[in-house]
Amino acid sequence: MWRNVVAIVLGFFVASLIVGMPSVMAVYDKVSQRNVGYIGVSNTTVFLDMDGTGASIQYVASGTLLSVTNSPGSYGYGTINETSTSNTGLTHFTLENDGTVPAHVTVHGDDWTGASTTWTLSDTATPGDSVHGLKTGLEGGSYSVIVKKTAPYNTLKSDLAVGGNQGWGLQLLAPTIIPSAAEVSGTITLTAVAV
Quick one: pLDDT band at residue 33, thresholds 50, 70, 90? Predict the structure, then answer.
């Protein structure tokens, strides 16, 4: 017996930051016990917003800037049958390094959930009863990198050069048994560190 999944939507998160600093953080006043402003990074500019009005004080950053983006930010697989394999194509997504240092990008995922079902992500990309696998691959290659949910995570792209782009794709290995037809979704997380 087979069942269909209505859709699978993936979201992506890639951080942009000055090495060692989050891209935006609140400034907390211990005396008044409230946030009194924000400090953040936009390209090579550090900004301070201490009155909450958005009128920022800006400083040009002198450190290195790690900034990697991914586009598009999602993909819908559509209806999926048990034991099927579905691919985005190895050029569907594009990583771009618009920072000032080369980047090393790792990939990991999570369980996919819906209203009436959960698909567990296999760390070996081996499908099973309500268990799915995911693999990634780079443009010109094959789907050979397993997307895991437990660390250590696998490398999607090492040494993404400053100003460089890299096409990549995602492969879904559907569960062998899908207990109920339901829309499920999950998140693939890309983490960039300076090389």
Answer: low
Nearest by Cα to 103 from 190, 2, 13: 190
Q: How far apart are CA 12 and CA 79, in angstroms?
A: 21
In terms of Cβ atoms closer than 10 Å to its own Cβ (0-12, 13-18, 19+), residue 59 is exposed
Residue 182 located in a structural domain = yes
Over range 104-108, report the average pLDDT: 95
The reported pTM is: 0.71
Residues 48 and 116 in one domain: no
Q: Which domain holds residue 33?
A: 24-60
Same domain, residue pair 37 and 127: no
Q: Based on the fold, state whether residues 38 and 89 are members of the same structural domain.
A: no
Cα angle 21, 22, 25; round to 5: 115
pLDDT in the model for residue 169: 96
